[in-house]
Design brief:
2 copies of one chain form a homodimer. Chain A is mainly alpha-helical. The interface between A and B is large, with 50 and 50 residues. Chain A binds a DNA duplex through helix 3.
DNA sequence: TGGACTCTAGACCGACTGGTCTATAGAGTT
DNA sequence: AACTCTATAGACCAGTCGGTCTAGAGTCCA
């Protein structure tokens, strides 16, 4: 039942398997045995690389997901002159991924964010810092394009909110429409607030 | 460990307990025993009222949650002249609930939406129909206030997306700021698109 | 050749999972 | 009082959960 790239080091295969599980079913939705099967790894290996077990693996996976999103976002913001264009590309990428997985793979951060409780401090902190960093990137980009500080903050938070909510709606609907409409509304809003170029 | 209102009929206590569990930890995050304990009900009673077990109870809970949201939304849209004001009140209510539960109780629909897979057809359908109905209400309200059909649809979807995403961000952050900022951005956007009153 | 160390491997464990089953309490009807 | 039907109650079950533990494979250095 090994689905992960067998060439990856074991530790990375574990993280990849956890990421996939978080996208599809959430932290509590997958069992350790199923997860290890899809990583093609026996049990001992998990506790060798992650002494803290499932929870520690989840934290590592969340960290990887955040790093990936930040890197992707930075690349798009660097490539596109206007933040609105970068946003459009960002949403487009998410749509492609969702469609390619037949509406099964959403955002790995969202599931565990909603499942986590106050006592899961490590996960909550990683998630909070991650979302804050993403908002920060978006806000800074808009600041650079003439948006006032207060408005840039509002818009950045709105963008992240809408991104997660649109993925959620599209997933249950089994159609991309919610993402299309959210993206369109968001892009024209950002475009209206930023200077034509830079 | 019974937390639910003991005066409620057993069936309603079960639904209430499931709703609370969905808000806090999600469908897979709570066990049947814990759920029954918090409902103050023995096992047999669950399978008497819901022969389909946990899954059927979850569908019923989702249905109740959707009905509740629609009723609340209708009331707000009827009470406020402008959809922007209704939206502001709606977001404000969600903020109050989240804060009162110390950032533990979010939206019960979001968790199970992200945990559900394609084969959970009953839940997916209930959720998809529910979100569509909410979008429909919002869209209709904006149409009545002079927004064009296409834009009203976009804005309604954006509002639902942002609502869910803002709750998610506020939950992990342990602060209301993400909701405040999302709400502010959304309200001023809607206000700009609607006629001053009606 | 023989440690020393990292990593892989999976048998095994108690606790708990969702679910079934039988017993019975109570209300309504005759 | 006897019968019926709905609802409550919890013992019980096989399967799975996350986690521990011991054994061995592979690699590097002496």
């Amino acid at each position: 039942m090994s689905t992960a790239d067998a060439n990856l080091p074991t530790r990375d295969r574990l993280i990849a398997a956890m990421l996939d599980a978080l996208r599809r079913r959430g932290y509590y939705g997958i069992g350790l045995n199923e997860l290890l099967a899809s990583a093609g790894a026996p049990k001992g290996v998990l506790y060798h690389h992650f002494p803290g077990g499932k929870a520690e693996l989840a934290v590592a996976a969340v960290q990887v997901a955040i790093d990936g999103m930040l890197a992707g976002l930075d690349k798009l913001l660097a490539r596109h002159a206007n933040p609105a264009d970068a946003l459009e590309a960002w949403m487009g990428g998410a749509q492609k991924l969702l469609l390619a997985s037949e509406f099964e793979r959403g955002c790995p951060l969202a599931t565990i964010a909603l499942e986590s409780a106050r006592e899961d401090a490590a996960i909550r902190e990683a998630l909070a810092a991650g979302f804050a960093a993403i908002r920060e990137r978006l806000s800074a980009a808009m600041l650079r394009h003439g948006v006032s500080d207060a408005i840039a903050n509002q818009l950045a938070t709105l963008v992240v909110s809408a991104y997660e909510g649109a993925l959620l709606q599209a997933r249950v609907a089994g159609r991309l429409d919610p993402m299309h409409e959210t993206s369109a509304a968001l892009v024209s809003l950002i475009r209206a607030h930023t200077r034509p170029s830079s």
